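Handout, page 2. Input:
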Amino acid sequence: MKALLFAFLAACVSPALAQETPASQQTLPTAPAPGTNFQDLIVPPGPWGRTSEELLPYLQTLRFEWTSADKNEARSTSPGLTVGSQSVSETLIRLKEGKVASLILLYYSRGNSGDINKRVFEDKLKAISDDLSAITKVQPVERGRIAGSAVRTDGLVWNTPETQYTLEWSGGKDMATGMYRAEFIRLTVLPAVKEQRAIGAATPSSYANRDAVKKFVGKDKVERLPDSTVRITGIPMVDQGEKGYCVVATTERVMRYYGAEVNQDELAQIANSDAKEGTSVSAMVNSLRKLTSRLGVKIKAIYSWDINEILDILKDYNRAAKKDKVDELRIEGNVIDVQELLSKADPKVYREVRLKKTTDFGRFQREIARSVDEGIPLLWSVNLGLVPEKNIPQYAGGHMRLIIGYDPKKNEILYSDSWGYGHEEKRMSFEDAWTITSGLYRMEPVGT
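Output:
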């Protein structure tokens, strides 16, 4: 039996996101202009009440980009973003009803910045803490660990009359190597506790529990259009950036849709993701199964490649290739590199072979319709490059998407990629979708 090398990788570059300003105005400075220093948004009383129009100078100067067309979230990885003495590697501004609801600042993540040792990690934490005490003019209190989060983070909280600042971090012994591994340092800035319920914001850990997910009602999220389209609404966009985090970013989107405020860095930690090499789908699935009681979700593999499935596909492909007089796919050595093999496949022959799997194809179609009708998006692992696709930053290799709808009249699925603005909703024929499918997973609240 040959070993199976099959990890879904997303070594893609974040695409340039759509801008509404003219091309001549799209070249932005790399350093903050006077009056648009990002720290202005952090200091008390905070940015609460500011509209997207009032944020525009910050968004332009500091290279923020909307992550989706609804403009509920803007993201920046600009080197000009600093708070106190420390630079910030990634920042999210989230809005609710057109006004700022929260800021999330990622000072450090393994996915963005690579590995650092324990001393550097702890020195950075101290510097950030000192900066926040100086900015807020109050001393922090220990938040302790929250058992309901995806990972058990440590935390400090600074409370001012208008604003709450929660610094969370995670790091510890790597079970595989025995060495210390820093994971992330994250600051969440929210309105003061007395206002949180009215605004509807929460720290990335406080809502990640069974109680939040229990409130989810999927059928309320399903929209049926006159043209026969059925689609799920309200799924937040997550831009994975330049990290190979398509699996964990897609999982974050589903969890946030259900009400559990996890993020891709927490999920990358539990799945042992690598920013360059990506995340193994099987590792993510196994990790989520272990977290069922903590997050209130369960996950089921509707369709998933294994070694026998791979070998059957190769056998069928080579039989068809010989008949059509194209090159067969040959396995060399004791490891099957699936992505390498598929990069050599003839797309037409491969498509014909896949569509002959009529039983699996029929089940694929039925499960999509059933899940979408229930308001359950499907995690969809695919092999890019086997059917034509326009305007995507990754043109080959393994990738994970969300299936969010279907159109029986046009015989199409609706899907979404974690690449930000412009990738919220796209269409593909059922036949092409099945051709590139390597896995389909249903993650749903416990009890549904």
